[in-house]
Amino acid sequence: MRLLPALALFALACSGGENTQKPEEPAKSDYVPSTEAPADVAAPPEDAVKTESGLAYKVLVKGDGTEVPEDASTVEVHYTGWHTTGEKFDSSRDRGQPARFGVRGVIAGWTEGLKLMHTGDHYRFWIPEELAYQGRPGKPAGMLVFDVELIDIKTPPKPPEAPPDVAAAPADATTTASGLQYKIVNKGSGGKKPTAESMVAVHYAGWQTTGENFDFSRKRGKPAAFGVTGVIPGWTEGLQLMETGDTFRFWIPPALAYEGKRGPQGTLVFDVELLDVVDAPPWSAPADAKSEESGLKWKLLSGPASAEQKPTAEDLVKVNWIGWVAKDKLGFDSNLGDEPQNPMRQLRSIAGFQEAVTHLNVGEKGRFWIPESLAFAGRPGAPPGDLVYDIELVSMEAGKAPKLPPSHPQ
């Protein structure tokens, strides 16, 4: 279920005249999660709590957790949603896997309700239309009722403190011909150096010269990965000065940053730790590559596996991948630095990626040259032309492919 963009954040204070007391918390055995409509689906019962915004809720099960979500948190939940008629319109339980989303990336009633919960809690929410989809075409209308189980909360760390020399590069900083300034914060033991065609994984933090932090990678819980030429010019130049293991501080003048473009303005200061570098592949398939009738070409980079275990569209796969645009010699897509994932976006969008995975056994890694007809086929705003992907099939669960949700409270 994709939850529509968050609406206004409402106060959680309770209004006079309503039941503002916490309802009695039932024993865990009193409630069993179900996708069947509850008896009180038509309207909030008398023992439900109603907040000032109009959200009504009751506690179904009180968990043992002590943590509550914040605006910046990402949550994992199971939920089922009904109209007040009892008609079910969505359920993560029907899909067999929990949903994940940001607390502020959902309808207002969800944002407010999630921040009342602790991990392990089960709540029932009655969300009035003004806190739900507000009559948006194609979305569930009217008051909506949700049973929500809060499974997990991921809250990002606070932004790092600005370095003491954030206002201006110190005298011992190096200045390049372009105007980029840098100093080595930590020198690694000597590793791989990226080129303009490389894909890299980094951790970074960025500040304006006032000391205000505008971004940092650790808030997302994983490194950032991108092609060296797919970033602002100051980064493209700076990364090619580094080796894996290094941490550099860069003072990037406006002309090498976002001047005249969308983004933070003025001189920007970045601390960058270079974690990994992956060299670009050959942009054309070699003579020993296998050719499929579809036009896909590929070769194994590791393997073959000891057992035949190829996936189908019905199977849940987890893969590692890196993708380049051959025409631009640019890395544009990867999970570099992250755990293996089920890459639903690629599998849905690119026929060549979906076919590529079916040629691998679990444990094998292949390189695939995907023609434009099996890639984005000229789709506006998408990477143009042929693509090259390195894909490693890490695991497979037969028949466990997740069903795509019809909607989300996003």
Descriptive account of the structure:
The protein has 410 residues and is mainly beta. The protein folds into 3 domains: 28-154, Chitinase A, domain 3; 174-278, Roll (Chitinase A, domain 3); 290-397, Roll (Chitinase A, domain 3), CATH 3.10.50.40. The chain contains 5 helices and 20 strands. The strands form 3 sheets. Strands 1, 2, 3, 4, 5, 6 and 7 form a 7-stranded antiparallel β-sheet that branches. The model is unreliable at 1-29 (pLDDT under 50).
> What ranges have pLDDT less than 50 throughout 5 or more consecutive residues?
1-29
And the CATH topology of the largest domain? Answer: Chitinase A, domain 3
Beta-strand content bin = 25-35%
Helix/strand-derived category reads mainly beta
Largest sheet: 7 strands, antiparallel
CATH class of the largest domain: Alpha Beta
Order of helices and strands: EEEEHEHEEEEEEEHEEEEEEHHEE
The overall average pLDDT, rounded, is 89
Shape: globular
Q: List how many beta strands DSSP finds.
A: 20
Q: Main traits of this protein?
A:
410 residues, seven-stranded antiparallel sheet, disordered N terminus, globular, 3 domains
Please summarize what this structure is.
This protein has helices spanning 92-95, 108-114, 233-239, 344-349, 351-358; strands at 49-50, 56-61, 74-83, 88-91, 99-102, 122-127, 144-154, 174-175, 181-186, 199-208, 213-216, 224-227, 247-252, 268-278, 290-291, 297-302, 316-325, 330-334, 365-370, 387-397.
